[in-house]
Design a protein that fits this description.
Binds to RNA polymerase II (RNAPII). This is GPN-loop GTPase 2. Belongs to the GPN-loop GTPase family. It contains 15 helices and 7 strands. The protein is an alpha/beta fold and about 325 residues long. The protein has a 7-stranded parallel β-sheet with strand order 3-2-4-1-5-6-7, sandwiched between helices. Helix 2 packs across helix 3 and helix 4 crosses helix 6 (about 115-130). The longest helix has 18 residues, at about 145-165. Bound molecules: guanosine-5'-triphosphate (GTP) and magnesium ion.
């Protein structure tokens, strides 16, 4: 039974970059990742796709043939894929059951909130091939810079979680940039934990005026009542945050429990099962806001001290071992 991640999120939130980074990381720890590109507009892929929607149809062709603009074109292309899912499933099947799938999606938000095409395709993958997917929803941490946008993002994340009915991890992407957007009224953990939303209502009112107070509170109540939304943080170049995120994704997918027949990284899996690194020992506010400069400098220094990417991964995994006392697979082992 293959495992995988469905990588979604609004336009420009970092999906394709993440697929590339996660692909490298998974390869480094001995898994066998394959990337599937489902974005018909993705004409400059930063990775080698094992399967590409553009081999079936491209956005340029759809726009020309159907006389559509780019947004309508992407939706149309996904609808076409949905109608010929059998062919798509056959292609995925050929990748083999030991592959770990990374599925890169277009950024059209309606595909995650109410349009059925993507959700149908994913259901078929689950049903026909037994793929166990985790939705990784990347949301640009830029939205933390505005209290009202943060509330909108919570609603979007909740709606998306209900749409796919799969294990779901929300991620504030590009967290390395968050300190550039000016001081935040709350610590980073406040935004990731999604607790005590009433504390942020005055900030929304300050931005929007009293007109939206009732609406803000109503959204806040819905989000709180469901109790589903929280966030991980990610800077794709920061290996610690990638390791920490993969631990959370593995836990959500149940990868821990069937991994020996999937890839060669059972030692890594054992390590994460014991949970020592889950959530990470890192204080995210300190790392990404309060002392970001010092941490960045230390990371650059560490990088300079190392020879190459393999050394860098191995050093991070060694740090993981030291912190947890558990052995992790190294690059090339
Ligand atoms: N600083 C920083 N930039 C990032 C990070 N992840 C992605 N980016 C940048 O964000 C921009 C958009 O990234 P993409 O990976 O193309 O985003 P996408 O979600 O695939 O975009 P669409 O496919 O157009 O929806 C690029 O310039 C990336 O280099 C990150 O963790 N930190
Ligand atoms: Mg992309």
């Amino acid at each position: 039974m293959p495992f995988g991640q469905l990588i979604i999120g609004p336009p420009g939130s970092g999906k394709s970059t993440y697929c590339n980074g996660m692909n490298q990381f998974l390869s480094a720890i001995g898994r066998k990742p394959s990337i599937i590109n489902l974005d018909p507009a993705n004409d400059h892929l930063p990775y080698d796709a094992a399967l590409d929607i553009r081999d079936f149809t491209t956005l340029e062709d759809v726009m020309k043939e159907q006389n559509l603009g780019p947004n309508g074109g992407i939706i149309y292309a996904l609808e076409q894929l949905d109608e010929s899912t059998d062919l798509f499933i056959e292609q995925v099947k050929k990748l083999g059951s030991k592959e770990y799938l990374l599925i890169d999606c277009p950024g059209q938000v309606e595909l995650f909130t109410h349009h059925g095409a993507l959700a149908h395709i994913v259901k078929r993958l689950e049903k026909d091939l037994g793929v166990r997917l985790v939705v990784v929803n990347l949301i640009d941490s830029y939205y933390l810079s505005s209290a009202s946008q943060y509330i909108s993002v919570l609603l979007l994340a909740l709606r998306t979680m209900l749409q796919f009915d799969l294990p779901h991890i929300n991620v504030l992407s590009k967290i390395d940039l968050v300190s550039n957007y000016g001081p935040l009224p709350f610590k980073l953990d406040y935004y990731t934990e999604v607790q005590d939303l009433e504390r942020i209502y005055p900030n929304v009112e300050q931005e929007m005026g009293p007109r939206f107070s009732r609406l803000t509170e109503a959204i806040g109540e819905v989000v709180t009542d469901f109790g589903l939304v929280d966030f991980q943080v990610l800077a794709v170049e920061d290996k610690k945050s990638m390791i920490s995120l993969l631990s959370v994704i593995d836990k959500a997918s149940g990868y821990l429990f069937g991994s020996t027949e999937i890839g060669g990284d059972s030692i890594w899996v054992d390590a994460t099962r014991q949970g020592g690194y889950l959530g990470g020992p890192i204080d995210i506010h300190e790392r990404w806001v309060e002392h970001k400069k010092e941490y960045d400098q230390a990371a650059v220094q560490e990088r300079d001290d190392r020879m190459n990417d393999a050394d860098e991964w191995n050093a991070e995994l060694a740090a993981f071992e030291q912190e947890t006392g558990i052995k992790a697979t190294k690059w090339g082992e």
